[in-house]
Amino acid sequence: MTTPDPASQDRLARIVRLSSGSYLLVTTYKKDGTAVPTPVWVVRDGEALGIWTAVDSWKVRRIRNRADVLVGPCDVKGRPTGEQYPATAEILGPERTAAYRTLLRQKYGLLGVLTLLGSRLRRGERGTVGIRITLAD
């Protein structure tokens, strides 16, 4: 039996810790390098983190231009409550985005259901996108 790599164990522990919080501070970068922190809901996606946002949001545009991000725990107002970690963000297709909606409903309960419903009524199913965040080693 092989022993798990300590770095992998540490990364997984960070994922569990970050995904157990209500909010994740995702810092994306403008083309000029300016950091833009945004608090978002977060779910666990295996060995990664998942977030969900409007497809036409500025954070999606910034991630398309530059996939490296910083992530860490925060409160509802985006005030950091712990260490921030380097990561890579990937914009997902409709199938994985739908899976993230399910995870959000499960984690956030009635508030999640109402938020997702409001979003669907305003934007339609294709108006939002899932973003998979993989922590760096």
In words, what does this structure look like?
The chain is an alpha+beta fold and 137 residues long. The chain has one domain: Pnp Oxidase, Chain A, CATH 2.30.110. 39% of the residues lie in helices and 33% in strands. The protein contains three helices and seven strands. It has helices spanning 6-20, 58-65, 94-123, and strands at residues 23-29, 35-41, 43-45, 48-54, 68-73, 85-91, 128-135. It has a seven-stranded antiparallel β-sheet, sandwiched between helices. Strand 1 and strand 2 (35-41) form a beta hairpin. One of its GO terms (cellular component) is cytosol. It is an enzyme of class 1 (oxidoreductase). InterPro entries: F420H2_bilvrd_red/Heme_oxyg, PPOX_F420-dep_Rv2061_put, Split_barrel_FMN-bd.
Named at the architecture level, the CATH assignment is: Roll
Measured by DSSP, the beta-strand proportion falls in: 25-35%
Helix run count: 3
Computed Rg = 15 Å
Count of the domains: 1
Order of strands across the biggest sheet? 2-1-5-6-7-4-3
Helix content: 25-40%
Order of helices and strands: HEEEEHEEHE
CATH class (first level) name? Mainly Beta
- CATH superfamily, called what? Electron Transport, Fmn-binding Protein, Chain A
What name does the CATH topology carry? Pnp Oxidase, Chain A
Report the major sheet: 7 strands, antiparallel
> Termini, distance in Å?
23 Å
Shape: globular
Mean pLDDT: 92
Number of strands: 7
Helix/sheet category: alpha+beta
Low-pLDDT ranges:
none
Enzyme class: oxidoreductase
GO molecular function, one term: coenzyme F420 binding
Organism: Streptomyces kaniharaensis
Keywords: Oxidoreductase
